[in-house]
Amino acid sequence: MVEAFEFHVIGEMVGVDPAMLNDQEFVQEAVVTSVIRSGLTLFEVLTMKRDEGGVLSIAIIGESHVAVHTWPDQGKVTVTVSSCKDPESTWQVFWELKEIFRARDYQAMELRSGILLTERAVLTVP
To answer: How do the domains of the chain map onto residue ranges?
Structure first.
């Protein structure tokens, strides 16, 4: 079995208060808090408010990165977490953000670098 060398969680959270999603300081603090609580190594955070609404926040972590993009008009947050540490801490960042944003619902998936998607798919030949 091929071992993964990096773990990715990509997800979307819905039902979030638009005021939170437009608050640049709140979003940045959410990213910082989720990284620290997950035991990952925070190096730098860049957070910017978009003119048309919403906030982008990207954390450079010792293990890779965390990116959050908010959509206040839709009450949504998109999240990408990549880490070479382990799948547990990668997911923990996502769960921490879900709690901080008090999301009503979510969708998320995990990908693992180093494992080809075709290796994990069941291939059938007609």
So the answer is: 6-120
Q: Which helix (H) or strand (E) holds 31?
A: helix 24-37
The DSSP H or E segment spanning 89 is helix 87-101
Give, as one character, the DSSP assignment of residue 61.
E
At 104, is the pLDDT very low, low, confident or very high (cuts 50, 70, 90)? very high
**Class (C level, CATH) for 6-120:** alpha beta
- The reported pTM is 0.86
Comparison of pLDDT for 117 and 103, the residue scoring more: 103
> Which of 34, 57, 69, 82 is flagged as catalytic?
69
- Check 34, 64, 82, 89 and give the catalytic one: 64
d(CA 14, CA 115) in angstroms, rounded, equals 30
Q: How high does pLDDT run on average in the chain? A: 89
